[in-house]
Amino acid sequence: MTTESIVSMIGNLGFPIVVSFYLLIRLEQNIKRLEQTLQALIDQIQKGGN
Question: Rounded to whole angstroms, what are the CA distances from 7 to 22, 26, 27, 33, 45?
Fold first, then answer.
């Protein structure tokens, strides 16, 4: 996102909505990484630990 698009979104939608949207995107990325890590852990446990 460019600075211009962020300023435009704040003007059109309002600051709280833009911040909420940004945080949801960040959380989604973190949850996806957590799911991948958990799946790798499950795979290791099923293989026998190593």
Answer: 13, 19, 22, 29, 48
